[in-house]
Amino acid sequence: MSESEATPPSTPRTTAAAEDYLERIAALIRTKGYARVVDIAAELKISQASVTTMVQRLDADGLVKYEKYRGMVLTDAGEAVATRIAHRHELLTQLLRFFDLPEAIIFRDVEGMEHHISGETLDALERLTRHLDAHPEIVAQLKR
Ligand code: CO
After folding, report:
1. pLDDT above 70 as % of the chain
2. What are the chain's domains?
């Protein structure tokens, strides 16, 4: 794994719910070019009122810049958190893929695991993932 893929420096602490939002917002901006409350509500299957409340909180925390009629953008701090979240999601996905699990199961489990894992455990799993990546013969032994 190259230097640029190393764990990003520590960024503000966020709750699992805030991380879920930042993950969706970053993904929407990446794929559609913008993120609106209505899109987030549809993806997370919650009411627009609840989404608005959370987005206003993220704005107050300096992670998102929210304008009622124009949607939202991530601030630099929000980008840093979103980058950390994306890195963690990719790492856990890469690890589970060594076991040839169905992609749908991998996605669901990563979404559940990612917000509850400590930085220490993530570092350990990153070392394990790098080791397995360098040793396909071990990976072959793990497959059923
Ligand atoms: Co995720």
Report:
1. 90
2. 11-79 (1.10.10.10), 85-143 (1.10.60.10)
Q: Which residue has the tokens 């397995």?
A: 132
User: Residues of 51-60 as b/e, b for ≥16 C-beta within 10 angstroms?
Assistant: beebbebbbe
Secondary structure letter of residue 69 according to DSSP: T
Task: Check: pTM over 0.85? Answer yes or no.
Answer: no
The contacts of residue 139 (CB under 8 Å, 6+ apart) are 98, 132
The string of pLDDT tens digits covering residues 77-126 is 999 999 999 999 999 999 999 998 999 999 999 999 998 899 999 999 99
Taking the centre of ligand 1 as the mean of its atom positions, its distance from the CA of residue 114, in whole angstroms, is: 6
Q: Map residue 6 onto helix, strand or coil.
A: coil
How far does the centroid of ligand 1 lie from the alpha carbon of residue 97, in Å? 15
Q: In angstroms, what is the span from residue 79 Cα to ligand 1's centroid?
A: 15
CA–centroid distance, 111 to ligand 1, in Å, is 5
Structure tokens that stand for 80 in this block: 């840093």
Report CA(96)–ligand 1 centroid distance (Å): 13
Please tell me the distance between residue 24's alpha carbon and the centre of ligand 1 in angstroms.
8
